[in-house]
Amino acid sequence: MSPMLLLLLLLSLLGPALAWLPVEDWESGNVTSSGGGLECLCSVFLPDSNFPVNRVQHMQQITSDLKREVEIQINKMVSYDTKLEVYLEKLMDLTVRVAMMDSSPDDYIKLDFELLRIELREFEALVSQLRDSLNASSPALDSLFTEIHNMTLIVNQLETFDKKNLEVIRIEFLKLQRKLKECQEGQEYFKPDIGNCNNTGIVTVSKPTLIQINAHLNAGYQYGGWGKDSKPVRGHESMYWYGAYSSPSVFEFYLYSSYDKLIQRSSFTHHGLPQGYEGSGNNYIVHGNAVYFQASNPFRMSKLNLTSSVYTHRQMTKASETYTYVYSPKQYLDFSADEKGLWVLYSTEEANGKIVAAKIDEKSFAVEDEWTTNAFKPLVGNAFMACGVMYATRPGDLNTEEIYYSYDTRTGEEKQMSVYFQKFQDSFVNLHYNPTDQKLYMYNKGYYVSYNLRFGEE
Ligand SMILES: *[C@@H]1O[C@H](CO)[C@@H](O)[C@H](O)[C@H]1NC(C)=O
Ligand SMILES: *[C@@H]1O[C@H](CO)[C@@H](O)[C@H](O)[C@H]1NC(C)=O
Ligand SMILES: *[C@@H]1O[C@H](CO)[C@@H](O)[C@H](O)[C@H]1NC(C)=O
Ligand SMILES: *[C@@H]1O[C@H](CO)[C@@H](O)[C@H](O)[C@H]1NC(C)=O
Ligand SMILES: *[C@@H]1O[C@H](CO)[C@@H](O)[C@H](O)[C@H]1NC(C)=O
Protein backbone atom coordinates (compact mmCIF):
# COMPACT_ATOMS: atom_id res chain seq x y z
CA MET A 1 0.00 0.00 0.00
CA SER A 2 1.36 3.36 -0.91
CA PRO A 3 1.23 5.98 1.82
CA MET A 4 -1.96 7.96 2.11
CA LEU A 5 -1.89 11.30 0.59
CA LEU A 6 -2.93 13.80 3.12
CA LEU A 7 -2.85 17.23 1.71
CA LEU A 8 -3.14 19.86 4.31
CA LEU A 9 -4.23 22.82 2.38
CA LEU A 10 -3.70 26.00 4.23
CA LEU A 11 -5.70 28.84 2.90
CA SER A 12 -2.77 31.15 2.79
CA LEU A 13 -1.33 28.80 0.19
CA LEU A 14 -4.36 28.73 -1.99
CA GLY A 15 -3.65 31.11 -4.76
CA PRO A 16 -4.37 30.33 -8.39
CA ALA A 17 -0.95 28.67 -8.37
CA LEU A 18 -2.48 25.70 -6.65
CA ALA A 19 -4.79 24.81 -9.48
CA TRP A 20 -2.74 21.68 -9.78
CA LEU A 21 -0.15 20.20 -7.52
CA PRO A 22 3.10 19.04 -9.04
CA VAL A 23 3.59 15.32 -9.09
CA GLU A 24 6.62 15.54 -6.80
CA ASP A 25 4.50 17.09 -4.07
CA TRP A 26 1.84 14.46 -4.43
CA GLU A 27 4.45 11.83 -3.91
CA SER A 28 5.80 13.36 -0.74
CA GLY A 29 2.29 13.26 0.66
CA ASN A 30 2.40 16.58 2.49
CA VAL A 31 1.75 20.07 1.40
CA THR A 32 1.95 22.49 4.27
CA SER A 33 2.68 26.09 4.78
CA SER A 34 4.67 27.64 7.53
CA GLY A 35 3.60 31.19 6.93
CA GLY A 36 0.24 32.84 7.27
CA GLY A 37 -2.55 32.39 9.74
CA LEU A 38 -3.99 29.02 10.62
CA GLU A 39 -7.57 30.08 11.09
CA CYS A 40 -8.87 27.81 8.45
CA LEU A 41 -7.32 24.42 8.08
CA CYS A 42 -8.87 22.18 5.53
CA SER A 43 -7.87 18.66 4.67
CA VAL A 44 -8.34 16.59 1.62
CA PHE A 45 -7.80 12.90 1.24
CA LEU A 46 -6.91 11.49 -2.08
CA PRO A 47 -7.48 7.90 -2.99
CA ASP A 48 -4.64 5.54 -2.22
CA SER A 49 -3.74 5.18 -5.86
CA ASN A 50 -1.22 7.93 -6.38
CA PHE A 51 -0.35 9.36 -9.71
CA PRO A 52 1.35 6.38 -11.32
CA VAL A 53 4.71 7.99 -11.99
CA ASN A 54 6.51 4.67 -11.89
CA ARG A 55 4.19 3.28 -14.53
CA VAL A 56 4.68 6.27 -16.78
CA GLN A 57 8.44 5.87 -16.38
CA HIS A 58 8.16 2.18 -17.15
CA MET A 59 6.13 2.96 -20.23
CA GLN A 60 8.73 5.49 -21.36
CA GLN A 61 11.40 2.86 -20.91
CA ILE A 62 9.45 0.32 -22.94
CA THR A 63 8.77 2.88 -25.64
CA SER A 64 12.44 3.68 -26.10
CA ASP A 65 13.34 -0.04 -25.98
CA LEU A 66 10.74 -0.68 -28.66
CA LYS A 67 12.11 2.05 -30.82
CA ARG A 68 15.66 0.71 -30.56
CA GLU A 69 14.51 -2.82 -31.23
CA VAL A 70 12.52 -1.82 -34.30
CA GLU A 71 15.53 0.10 -35.65
CA ILE A 72 17.76 -2.93 -35.19
CA GLN A 73 15.27 -5.19 -36.91
CA ILE A 74 14.84 -2.77 -39.77
CA ASN A 75 18.58 -2.47 -40.28
CA LYS A 76 18.76 -6.23 -40.54
CA MET A 77 16.40 -6.16 -43.45
CA VAL A 78 17.59 -5.69 -46.99
CA SER A 79 14.66 -3.61 -48.08
CA TYR A 80 11.81 -1.88 -46.39
CA ASP A 81 9.13 0.44 -47.54
CA THR A 82 8.51 4.00 -46.42
CA LYS A 83 5.67 2.85 -44.24
CA LEU A 84 8.18 1.77 -41.66
CA GLU A 85 9.61 5.25 -41.46
CA VAL A 86 6.17 6.58 -40.74
CA TYR A 87 5.82 4.07 -37.92
CA LEU A 88 9.14 5.13 -36.52
CA GLU A 89 8.11 8.77 -36.53
CA LYS A 90 4.93 7.86 -34.75
CA LEU A 91 6.85 5.93 -32.20
CA MET A 92 9.06 8.94 -31.58
CA ASP A 93 5.96 11.08 -31.21
CA LEU A 94 4.52 8.63 -28.72
CA THR A 95 7.66 8.81 -26.62
CA VAL A 96 7.46 12.57 -26.55
CA ARG A 97 3.82 12.49 -25.52
CA VAL A 98 4.41 9.97 -22.79
CA ALA A 99 7.17 12.20 -21.48
CA MET A 100 4.70 15.07 -21.44
CA MET A 101 2.36 13.19 -19.16
CA ASP A 102 5.06 13.19 -16.60
CA SER A 103 5.80 16.89 -16.74
CA SER A 104 2.33 18.27 -17.15
CA PRO A 105 -0.66 16.50 -15.68
CA ASP A 106 -3.00 18.78 -17.61
CA ASP A 107 -1.64 17.43 -20.87
CA TYR A 108 -1.76 14.00 -19.40
CA ILE A 109 -5.47 14.39 -18.84
CA LYS A 110 -5.95 15.47 -22.40
CA LEU A 111 -4.03 12.46 -23.70
CA ASP A 112 -6.06 10.44 -26.13
CA PHE A 113 -5.91 6.89 -24.92
CA GLU A 114 -7.84 5.52 -27.86
CA LEU A 115 -5.20 6.92 -30.21
CA LEU A 116 -2.48 5.31 -28.10
CA ARG A 117 -4.20 1.97 -28.42
CA ILE A 118 -4.58 2.32 -32.19
CA GLU A 119 -0.88 3.10 -32.47
CA LEU A 120 -0.01 0.10 -30.39
CA ARG A 121 -2.05 -2.07 -32.74
CA GLU A 122 -0.09 -0.59 -35.63
CA PHE A 123 3.13 -1.56 -33.92
CA GLU A 124 1.83 -5.02 -33.52
CA ALA A 125 1.15 -5.15 -37.26
CA LEU A 126 4.62 -3.80 -37.97
CA VAL A 127 6.33 -6.42 -35.83
CA SER A 128 4.25 -9.08 -37.44
CA GLN A 129 5.30 -7.77 -40.86
CA LEU A 130 8.94 -7.83 -39.81
CA ARG A 131 8.60 -11.38 -38.62
CA ASP A 132 7.10 -12.46 -41.94
CA SER A 133 9.90 -10.75 -43.85
CA LEU A 134 12.55 -12.46 -41.78
CA ASN A 135 10.81 -15.80 -42.32
CA ALA A 136 12.27 -17.12 -39.09
CA SER A 137 11.32 -17.21 -35.47
CA SER A 138 13.25 -14.57 -33.61
CA PRO A 139 13.41 -14.28 -29.81
CA ALA A 140 13.86 -10.53 -30.23
CA LEU A 141 10.63 -10.23 -32.14
CA ASP A 142 8.76 -12.46 -29.70
CA SER A 143 9.89 -10.23 -26.88
CA LEU A 144 8.73 -7.20 -28.87
CA PHE A 145 5.29 -8.74 -29.05
CA THR A 146 5.25 -9.19 -25.28
CA GLU A 147 6.36 -5.63 -24.77
CA ILE A 148 3.63 -4.30 -27.00
CA HIS A 149 1.13 -6.33 -25.08
CA ASN A 150 2.48 -5.05 -21.78
CA MET A 151 2.33 -1.51 -23.04
CA THR A 152 -1.31 -1.94 -23.98
CA LEU A 153 -1.99 -3.07 -20.42
CA ILE A 154 -0.17 -0.06 -19.04
CA VAL A 155 -2.10 2.29 -21.29
CA ASN A 156 -5.33 0.74 -20.06
CA GLN A 157 -4.23 1.15 -16.47
CA LEU A 158 -3.19 4.72 -17.00
CA GLU A 159 -6.55 5.43 -18.50
CA THR A 160 -8.28 4.02 -15.43
CA PHE A 161 -6.20 6.28 -13.25
CA ASP A 162 -7.11 9.22 -15.39
CA LYS A 163 -10.83 8.69 -15.51
CA LYS A 164 -11.42 7.40 -12.01
CA ASN A 165 -9.04 9.51 -10.07
CA LEU A 166 -7.07 12.24 -11.63
CA GLU A 167 -9.79 13.99 -13.53
CA VAL A 168 -12.28 13.68 -10.71
CA ILE A 169 -9.77 14.78 -8.15
CA ARG A 170 -8.75 17.70 -10.26
CA ILE A 171 -12.34 18.87 -10.59
CA GLU A 172 -12.92 18.34 -6.89
CA PHE A 173 -9.78 20.30 -6.19
CA LEU A 174 -10.96 23.22 -8.23
CA LYS A 175 -14.30 23.16 -6.45
CA LEU A 176 -12.54 22.87 -3.15
CA GLN A 177 -10.17 25.63 -3.94
CA ARG A 178 -13.04 27.96 -4.68
CA LYS A 179 -14.76 27.06 -1.46
CA LEU A 180 -11.65 27.23 0.66
CA LYS A 181 -10.92 30.71 -0.58
CA GLU A 182 -14.22 31.78 0.86
CA CYS A 183 -13.73 29.64 3.93
CA GLN A 184 -11.42 32.02 5.68
CA GLU A 185 -13.82 34.90 5.42
CA GLY A 186 -15.37 35.48 8.76
CA GLN A 187 -13.67 32.65 10.62
CA GLU A 188 -12.94 35.18 13.32
CA TYR A 189 -16.62 35.83 13.40
CA PHE A 190 -17.44 32.35 14.71
CA LYS A 191 -16.43 32.22 18.33
CA PRO A 192 -17.95 29.23 20.06
CA ASP A 193 -19.14 29.64 23.63
CA ILE A 194 -19.48 25.97 24.54
CA GLY A 195 -22.42 25.09 26.72
CA ASN A 196 -23.92 28.57 26.76
CA CYS A 197 -27.46 28.65 25.45
CA ASN A 198 -28.14 32.26 26.34
CA ASN A 199 -28.65 33.14 22.72
CA THR A 200 -31.38 33.94 20.22
CA GLY A 201 -30.61 30.99 17.98
CA ILE A 202 -28.50 30.35 14.91
CA VAL A 203 -27.89 33.48 12.85
CA THR A 204 -25.07 32.37 10.54
CA VAL A 205 -23.55 29.14 9.30
CA SER A 206 -19.92 29.40 8.18
CA LYS A 207 -18.55 28.23 4.88
CA PRO A 208 -17.61 24.56 5.06
CA THR A 209 -14.48 24.24 7.21
CA LEU A 210 -13.67 20.67 6.31
CA ILE A 211 -14.27 18.75 3.16
CA GLN A 212 -12.88 15.29 2.89
CA ILE A 213 -13.82 12.08 1.17
CA ASN A 214 -14.98 9.23 3.43
CA ALA A 215 -12.65 6.64 4.94
CA HIS A 216 -13.56 4.10 2.26
CA LEU A 217 -12.21 6.61 -0.27
CA ASN A 218 -15.33 5.80 -2.19
CA ALA A 219 -17.52 8.61 -3.48
CA GLY A 220 -20.13 5.93 -4.22
CA TYR A 221 -20.66 5.54 -0.46
CA GLN A 222 -23.24 8.29 -0.52
CA TYR A 223 -25.28 7.13 2.46
CA GLY A 224 -23.59 7.60 5.79
CA GLY A 225 -22.66 9.83 8.61
CA TRP A 226 -19.70 11.13 10.51
CA GLY A 227 -19.15 13.15 13.62
CA LYS A 228 -17.80 13.34 17.10
CA ASP A 229 -19.17 11.83 20.31
CA SER A 230 -21.43 14.59 21.65
CA LYS A 231 -20.99 13.51 25.29
CA PRO A 232 -17.66 11.70 25.39
CA VAL A 233 -16.82 9.35 28.25
CA ARG A 234 -13.48 9.42 30.02
CA GLY A 235 -10.68 8.01 27.90
CA HIS A 236 -12.52 8.88 24.68
CA GLU A 237 -12.57 12.65 24.97
CA SER A 238 -12.36 13.34 21.29
CA MET A 239 -13.77 10.23 19.71
CA TYR A 240 -14.92 10.53 16.10
CA TRP A 241 -17.11 8.08 14.24
CA TYR A 242 -18.02 7.21 10.69
CA GLY A 243 -20.23 4.78 8.83
CA ALA A 244 -21.38 4.61 5.22
CA TYR A 245 -22.60 2.40 2.46
CA SER A 246 -23.74 2.63 -1.17
CA SER A 247 -27.40 2.25 -0.16
CA PRO A 248 -29.36 3.68 2.79
CA SER A 249 -28.71 0.50 4.79
CA VAL A 250 -26.60 0.68 7.93
CA PHE A 251 -24.14 -2.15 8.55
CA GLU A 252 -21.16 -0.82 10.44
CA PHE A 253 -19.46 1.94 12.40
CA TYR A 254 -15.82 2.92 12.63
CA LEU A 255 -14.44 4.72 15.67
CA TYR A 256 -11.39 6.96 15.83
CA SER A 257 -9.61 8.14 18.95
CA SER A 258 -9.03 11.64 17.58
CA TYR A 259 -9.58 13.95 14.68
CA ASP A 260 -6.12 13.15 13.34
CA LYS A 261 -6.88 9.43 13.41
CA LEU A 262 -10.11 10.08 11.56
CA ILE A 263 -8.36 11.87 8.75
CA GLN A 264 -5.63 9.23 8.68
CA ARG A 265 -8.43 6.63 8.41
CA SER A 266 -6.93 4.81 11.34
CA SER A 267 -9.83 3.52 13.42
CA PHE A 268 -9.19 1.88 16.79
CA THR A 269 -12.26 -0.26 16.46
CA HIS A 270 -15.04 -1.23 14.15
CA HIS A 271 -18.52 -2.54 14.92
CA GLY A 272 -20.31 -4.59 12.30
CA LEU A 273 -23.99 -4.85 13.14
CA PRO A 274 -24.98 -8.52 13.56
CA GLN A 275 -27.51 -9.99 11.18
CA GLY A 276 -31.00 -8.85 12.13
CA TYR A 277 -29.67 -5.71 13.83
CA GLU A 278 -28.97 -3.75 10.67
CA GLY A 279 -30.23 -0.23 10.36
CA SER A 280 -31.39 2.21 7.74
CA GLY A 281 -31.86 5.90 7.20
CA ASN A 282 -28.34 6.98 8.24
CA ASN A 283 -29.45 9.58 10.80
CA TYR A 284 -27.38 8.04 13.57
CA ILE A 285 -25.13 9.75 16.09
CA VAL A 286 -22.74 8.75 18.88
CA HIS A 287 -23.62 10.13 22.30
CA GLY A 288 -22.12 9.02 25.61
CA ASN A 289 -20.13 6.25 23.93
CA ALA A 290 -23.27 4.71 22.41
CA VAL A 291 -24.48 4.69 18.82
CA TYR A 292 -28.15 5.58 18.39
CA PHE A 293 -29.60 4.40 15.12
CA GLN A 294 -32.78 3.31 13.39
CA ALA A 295 -33.06 -0.48 13.11
CA SER A 296 -34.82 -1.74 9.98
CA ASN A 297 -36.46 -4.99 10.80
CA PRO A 298 -38.34 -4.73 13.02
CA PHE A 299 -38.46 -0.95 12.78
CA ARG A 300 -37.39 0.53 16.12
CA MET A 301 -34.79 2.74 17.71
CA SER A 302 -31.61 0.98 18.71
CA LYS A 303 -28.68 1.75 20.91
CA LEU A 304 -25.31 0.07 20.60
CA ASN A 305 -23.39 0.61 23.81
CA LEU A 306 -19.79 0.87 22.69
CA THR A 307 -18.49 0.18 26.21
CA SER A 308 -20.34 -3.10 26.65
CA SER A 309 -21.21 -3.89 22.99
CA VAL A 310 -24.77 -4.48 24.24
CA TYR A 311 -27.73 -3.61 21.99
CA THR A 312 -30.92 -2.12 23.40
CA HIS A 313 -34.08 -1.52 21.40
CA ARG A 314 -37.27 0.49 21.77
CA GLN A 315 -40.41 0.20 19.68
CA MET A 316 -41.55 3.50 18.22
CA THR A 317 -45.21 2.82 17.58
CA LYS A 318 -46.06 6.44 16.86
CA ALA A 319 -43.24 7.15 14.45
CA SER A 320 -44.42 6.98 10.87
CA GLU A 321 -42.69 4.88 8.24
CA THR A 322 -44.27 7.00 5.52
CA TYR A 323 -42.49 10.32 5.70
CA THR A 324 -38.82 10.78 4.96
CA TYR A 325 -36.57 13.77 4.26
CA VAL A 326 -36.04 15.13 0.75
CA TYR A 327 -32.71 13.53 -0.07
CA SER A 328 -32.95 9.94 1.07
CA PRO A 329 -35.49 7.19 1.69
CA LYS A 330 -36.20 5.50 5.02
CA GLN A 331 -35.17 8.42 7.20
CA TYR A 332 -37.81 7.84 9.86
CA LEU A 333 -35.81 8.34 13.05
CA ASP A 334 -33.33 11.20 13.13
CA PHE A 335 -31.14 11.20 16.26
CA SER A 336 -29.76 14.44 17.58
CA ALA A 337 -27.91 15.66 20.66
CA ASP A 338 -27.52 19.13 22.09
CA GLU A 339 -26.86 20.96 25.38
CA LYS A 340 -30.11 19.50 26.72
CA GLY A 341 -29.32 15.88 25.93
CA LEU A 342 -30.50 13.25 23.48
CA TRP A 343 -33.36 13.70 21.01
CA VAL A 344 -35.06 11.80 18.24
CA LEU A 345 -36.95 13.55 15.44
CA TYR A 346 -39.67 11.75 13.51
CA SER A 347 -43.03 12.40 11.98
CA THR A 348 -46.34 10.80 12.82
CA GLU A 349 -49.49 9.95 10.90
CA GLU A 350 -51.37 11.89 13.54
CA ALA A 351 -49.39 15.05 12.73
CA ASN A 352 -49.78 14.42 8.98
CA GLY A 353 -46.05 14.25 8.35
CA LYS A 354 -45.06 17.20 10.54
CA ILE A 355 -41.86 16.64 12.49
CA VAL A 356 -42.16 15.74 16.15
CA ALA A 357 -39.18 16.46 18.39
CA ALA A 358 -38.94 13.93 21.20
CA LYS A 359 -36.59 14.15 24.17
CA ILE A 360 -35.10 10.81 25.13
CA ASP A 361 -34.36 9.90 28.72
CA GLU A 362 -30.96 8.27 28.38
CA LYS A 363 -31.22 6.02 31.42
CA SER A 364 -34.48 4.38 30.43
CA PHE A 365 -33.96 4.89 26.68
CA ALA A 366 -37.55 6.08 26.44
CA VAL A 367 -39.30 9.18 25.14
CA GLU A 368 -39.83 11.54 28.08
CA ASP A 369 -41.50 14.43 26.29
CA GLU A 370 -42.42 15.50 22.77
CA TRP A 371 -43.29 18.61 20.77
CA THR A 372 -45.10 18.69 17.44
CA THR A 373 -43.62 21.26 15.09
CA ASN A 374 -44.95 22.67 11.83
CA ALA A 375 -42.10 21.47 9.66
CA PHE A 376 -43.56 19.15 7.02
CA LYS A 377 -40.98 16.39 6.78
CA PRO A 378 -41.21 15.61 3.02
CA LEU A 379 -40.08 19.18 2.29
CA VAL A 380 -37.26 19.14 4.82
CA GLY A 381 -33.66 18.36 3.85
CA ASN A 382 -32.75 17.40 7.40
CA ALA A 383 -33.30 18.59 10.95
CA PHE A 384 -31.26 18.91 14.13
CA MET A 385 -31.46 20.19 17.68
CA ALA A 386 -29.29 22.92 19.21
CA CYS A 387 -29.95 24.42 22.66
CA GLY A 388 -33.37 22.78 22.79
CA VAL A 389 -34.37 24.36 19.48
CA MET A 390 -35.22 22.23 16.49
CA TYR A 391 -33.95 23.58 13.17
CA ALA A 392 -35.19 22.33 9.81
CA THR A 393 -33.45 22.84 6.49
CA ARG A 394 -34.72 22.80 2.94
CA PRO A 395 -32.94 22.63 -0.42
CA GLY A 396 -31.93 25.86 -2.07
CA ASP A 397 -30.09 25.41 -5.35
CA LEU A 398 -27.55 22.65 -6.03
CA ASN A 399 -24.95 24.23 -3.77
CA THR A 400 -27.11 25.83 -1.12
CA GLU A 401 -29.24 24.67 1.78
CA GLU A 402 -31.40 26.93 3.91
CA ILE A 403 -32.31 26.67 7.58
CA TYR A 404 -35.85 27.90 7.13
CA TYR A 405 -37.65 26.96 10.32
CA SER A 406 -37.03 26.64 14.02
CA TYR A 407 -39.08 25.42 16.95
CA ASP A 408 -38.02 26.22 20.50
CA THR A 409 -39.06 23.41 22.81
CA ARG A 410 -38.35 25.66 25.81
CA THR A 411 -41.00 28.23 24.83
CA GLY A 412 -43.08 26.54 22.13
CA GLU A 413 -42.14 29.46 19.88
CA GLU A 414 -41.67 28.76 16.17
CA LYS A 415 -39.91 30.96 13.67
CA GLN A 416 -39.66 31.18 9.92
CA MET A 417 -36.06 32.03 9.20
CA SER A 418 -33.59 32.11 6.36
CA VAL A 419 -30.01 31.13 7.06
CA TYR A 420 -28.29 29.84 3.95
CA PHE A 421 -25.21 27.64 3.88
CA GLN A 422 -23.15 25.97 1.20
CA LYS A 423 -23.17 22.34 0.29
CA PHE A 424 -20.19 20.71 -1.38
CA GLN A 425 -22.42 18.25 -3.24
CA ASP A 426 -26.13 18.62 -3.95
CA SER A 427 -27.55 16.11 -1.46
CA PHE A 428 -26.77 14.85 2.02
CA VAL A 429 -28.18 12.31 4.43
CA ASN A 430 -26.80 13.08 7.87
CA LEU A 431 -26.75 16.56 9.37
CA HIS A 432 -26.44 17.14 13.10
CA TYR A 433 -25.18 19.59 15.66
CA ASN A 434 -22.53 18.79 18.24
CA PRO A 435 -22.73 20.72 21.53
CA THR A 436 -19.08 20.02 22.43
CA ASP A 437 -17.77 22.23 19.65
CA GLN A 438 -20.95 23.96 18.42
CA LYS A 439 -20.35 22.71 14.91
CA LEU A 440 -22.64 21.18 12.34
CA TYR A 441 -21.56 17.87 10.82
CA MET A 442 -22.82 16.84 7.43
CA TYR A 443 -22.29 13.67 5.40
CA ASN A 444 -22.46 15.25 1.98
CA LYS A 445 -22.82 12.54 -0.66
CA GLY A 446 -19.64 10.69 0.29
CA TYR A 447 -17.80 13.62 1.85
CA TYR A 448 -17.29 14.79 5.41
CA VAL A 449 -18.25 18.44 5.72
CA SER A 450 -18.41 20.60 8.85
CA TYR A 451 -19.51 24.14 9.66
CA ASN A 452 -19.12 26.63 12.47
CA LEU A 453 -22.22 28.28 13.84
CA ARG A 454 -22.86 31.75 15.09
CA PHE A 455 -25.67 32.28 17.58
CA GLY A 456 -27.41 35.60 18.07
CA GLU A 457 -26.70 37.51 21.26
CA GLU A 458 -29.54 37.91 23.66
C1 LIG B 1 3.85 15.75 7.10
O1 LIG B 1 3.87 16.79 8.03
C2 LIG B 1 3.72 16.38 9.35
C3 LIG B 1 3.61 17.60 10.22
O2 LIG B 1 4.64 18.53 9.91
C4 LIG B 1 4.88 15.45 9.73
O3 LIG B 1 4.73 14.99 11.05
C5 LIG B 1 4.90 14.28 8.79
O4 LIG B 1 6.00 13.46 9.05
C6 LIG B 1 4.94 14.75 7.35
N1 LIG B 1 4.78 13.62 6.48
C7 LIG B 1 5.48 13.48 5.35
C8 LIG B 1 5.16 12.27 4.54
O5 LIG B 1 6.30 14.31 4.99
C1 LIG C 1 10.90 -19.44 -45.80
O1 LIG C 1 11.49 -20.58 -45.26
C2 LIG C 1 11.00 -21.78 -45.83
C3 LIG C 1 11.66 -22.97 -45.11
O2 LIG C 1 12.02 -22.67 -43.81
C4 LIG C 1 11.32 -21.80 -47.33
O3 LIG C 1 10.78 -22.97 -47.91
C5 LIG C 1 10.72 -20.58 -47.97
O4 LIG C 1 11.09 -20.52 -49.32
C6 LIG C 1 11.19 -19.30 -47.27
N1 LIG C 1 10.53 -18.16 -47.85
C7 LIG C 1 11.16 -17.01 -48.13
C8 LIG C 1 10.31 -15.91 -48.65
O5 LIG C 1 12.32 -16.84 -47.89
C1 LIG D 1 5.40 -8.13 -19.38
O1 LIG D 1 4.58 -8.29 -18.20
C2 LIG D 1 4.81 -9.52 -17.54
C3 LIG D 1 3.79 -9.60 -16.42
O2 LIG D 1 3.56 -8.36 -15.85
C4 LIG D 1 6.23 -9.58 -17.05
O3 LIG D 1 6.46 -10.82 -16.40
C5 LIG D 1 7.17 -9.44 -18.23
O4 LIG D 1 8.51 -9.40 -17.77
C6 LIG D 1 6.86 -8.20 -19.02
N1 LIG D 1 7.68 -8.20 -20.23
C7 LIG D 1 8.34 -7.17 -20.66
C8 LIG D 1 9.13 -7.39 -21.89
O5 LIG D 1 8.32 -6.09 -20.09
C1 LIG E 1 -27.56 32.69 31.08
O1 LIG E 1 -28.49 33.64 31.54
C2 LIG E 1 -28.96 33.38 32.88
C3 LIG E 1 -30.07 34.39 33.19
O2 LIG E 1 -29.84 35.61 32.58
C4 LIG E 1 -27.79 33.47 33.83
O3 LIG E 1 -28.21 33.19 35.14
C5 LIG E 1 -26.73 32.47 33.42
O4 LIG E 1 -25.57 32.58 34.21
C6 LIG E 1 -26.34 32.67 31.97
N1 LIG E 1 -25.45 31.60 31.57
C7 LIG E 1 -24.30 31.78 30.97
C8 LIG E 1 -23.51 30.55 30.66
O5 LIG E 1 -23.88 32.89 30.68
C1 LIG F 1 -22.94 1.20 28.53
O1 LIG F 1 -22.53 0.10 29.30
C2 LIG F 1 -21.76 0.45 30.45
C3 LIG F 1 -21.25 -0.82 31.08
O2 LIG F 1 -22.31 -1.71 31.25
C4 LIG F 1 -22.59 1.30 31.39
O3 LIG F 1 -21.82 1.68 32.50
C5 LIG F 1 -23.07 2.55 30.62
O4 LIG F 1 -23.92 3.31 31.41
C6 LIG F 1 -23.78 2.15 29.34
N1 LIG F 1 -24.01 3.38 28.56
C7 LIG F 1 -25.15 3.66 27.94
C8 LIG F 1 -25.23 4.93 27.22
O5 LIG F 1 -26.10 2.88 27.95
Automatic annotation (TrEMBL):
Sorted UniProt keywords: Secreted, Signal
GO process annotations (BP): signal transduction
Record protein name field: Olfactomedin-like domain-containing protein
Domain Olfactomedin-like: 196-457
Signal peptide annotation: 1-19
Cellular compartments per GO CC: extracellular space
InterPro entries: Olfac-like_dom (IPR003112), Olfactomedin-like_domain (IPR050605)
Main location: secreted
Cell compartments where the protein resides: Secreted
